[in-house]
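Quick one: structure for this chain?
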Amino acid sequence: MCNLLKVLLSSFLVFLSTITFSQQVCNGALGDPVININFGSGTSNFAAPLSTANTNYLYVQDSPDDGEYTIAKSTNGMHNQIGNGWHQIPNHTPNDPNGYMMVVNASENPGIFYQTNISGLCPGTTYEFAAWIINLLNYSGKKPNITFTIETTAGAPVGKYNTNDIEDGPTPKWIQYATTFTTTNQTDLVLKISNSGPGGIGNDIALDDITFRACGPIITSSVNNVPSNISVCEGNSGNYALAANITASTYVDAVYQWQSLTGNIWTDIPGQNTTLTTVNLTGAAIGSYQYRLITAERQNINSVNCRVASDPLTITVTAKFNTIASNNSPTCIGSSVQLSATEGTTFKWTGPNGFTSTDKNPIISNTQFDMAGDYTVTATLNGCTSTSTTTLVVLEPFLTTSFTSVETCENNPITLFASGGISYKWLPSESLSSSEIANPIANPKETTTYTVTASNGICSETATVKVIILKNAVADAGADLKALNGYSVILNGKVTGDDVSYFWTPNDYLDDPTKLNPKATPPFDITYTLHAQSNAGCLNSTDDVLVKVYPKIVIPNSFSPNGDGINDYWTIPATEAFTNTRVKITNRYGNLVYQSNGVYKPWDGKFEGKDLPSAVYYYTVYFNEDFETYSGWIFLTR
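Got it. Here's what it folds into:
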């Protein structure tokens, strides 16, 4: 029977030696590291060599050649044996700028560049074996090919994992390589990391953060049903429900234990052995309170190497803060005011007229008098709240004027009035006695709107005053007129001004003396007066026009230009009433002997300066379009 067990055990070990694991990062919760090799940290560029029990490579404090390694903060200044080709990188360990890493130049003969023993494992437990590796080559060369080997302390193989070729390239990239496996009855193992790739030009790596830890089910945790950490305010009291949801568990007889972090040590919370628990904080003091759930097979729960833990849930108690609200008032109507709060991450402002804002420093534009009052902000910061109030002061309007509009007759100055300020500026300044006093005298020619800007030393305000100019009444009777007796003329009256009435005097021989252009039919010379009167009380005006009346048209038929001073010219009296008379005189043969166009010039009986003989001559006379052309004969006698 004993021999049979030996045969079966031998066959089982041979079977295990053939197991090759694949890349498989633990997707569930991880336990506290059984090992966590980050090569330490320090102030110098290089660290001390590893124990010969951990590597069979040769240590140097320089750029390692084939088969050599160093422990360094970074590869800055390092290179391969041909003098270049390495990425210049820092170590991988997060948040540790002084941390070290292992820099390895592969040997021509593959060797173990890191190994370590682990103990205290539990049978039937899944573990993750992982390390962060980077190909240092920045050009194409020989590729690293890393093998993770797991053996018993007696050297019997348990399994291995091969990364295959790790690619090089122009951009350095740390990659975590990991595999998971489940123990059978092993409690002590040996972990080895070796380079299966050939040495020479290439096959150069850096190694950091080697871990070995238990891998378990997926644990999703929450505080008060919120799947994230929370913050509360100093002095608060309350109960906080912690919950852990377990999925994909392979445990046969799973047990649970809640823990809290005290200093750097996780301590069991007595009696809290389910996936739910409640934490009570009374008068919470400033600090960070962390909790987690651990789980394992019942027989393994007390072994730190064999159980897994949820991500820590953190309740952060933050110090109370005191936000202070303020604003830049007092301010003037129409200006902008900025409200300000000193501390907080979120804000809620309220104020008059339903004002609200979530800005830290909101701006109120175009402030009006009804916006004055108290503005309150409630700020939050890390779970704390603080409230503060500031009073917005809007200065009351101060500028007044005696009127907004006024009427006055032209050339009748009027005094403008403003009050409430200590300085004034009026525009436009033309037609003002002064533009920088409260009560200037205005004498504009046309209707003008004046703008006054007043200052009380803090605010400025503007107002407008409209001066409406009423024009004086002005009469224009037109040019003097001429008319023939029995004929009518139209008077050409014109009137200008605002709110004006008018009439003619005398009203004799006029068809309507209240019209600007009445028809006049006087039998003799007469002067008419046009009266223009301002109904607004401004100046009145009159103007005269003479209508000269001529007798009926009489054309003499003889004259004697003999120089005796009697009847020496052929004169047509009626032509004086016409400005464009056309007169033609011909002899009996139809030859033109005299012509007058325009104002008539009486004929002296001559042609081209020489006396014409006594004879009968023939005439035509055109006065205007209102008369037919007159024609007849003239007897010239000497």
